[in-house]
Design a protein that fits this description.
Pfam families: HTH_3. This is Transcriptional regulator. The chain is mostly helical. It is built from five helices and two strands; from the N terminus they run E-H-H-H-H-H-E. It has a two-stranded antiparallel sheet with strand order 1-2.
């Protein structure tokens, strides 16, 4: 299974936050936010919860699981 984060950038922008601001609110580097938005990094459950809280939304709104095709 692969984590899809395609909604993170949209939700972050709708909240009026920059990548740097979201990084500061969640205690990670801006590069971590960039990699997460691109789908190159799957955040831990703890980080996913912190991101969702910072954006005043749910983890499910931002992240989803993509089934791998057989």
């Amino acid at each position: 299974m692969e984590v899809q984060t395609s909604d993170l950038k949209q939700v972050r922008k709708a909240a009026g936050l920059t990548q740097a601001q979201l990084a500061q609110l969640t205690g990670v580097s801006r590069q971590t936010i960039i990699a997460t938005e691109r789908g190159a990094y799957a955040p831990s459950v703890y980080l996913a919860l912190r991101i969702a809280r910072a954006l005043d939304t749910t983890v499910e709104e931002i992240f989803s699981l993509q089934e791998e095709s057989s």
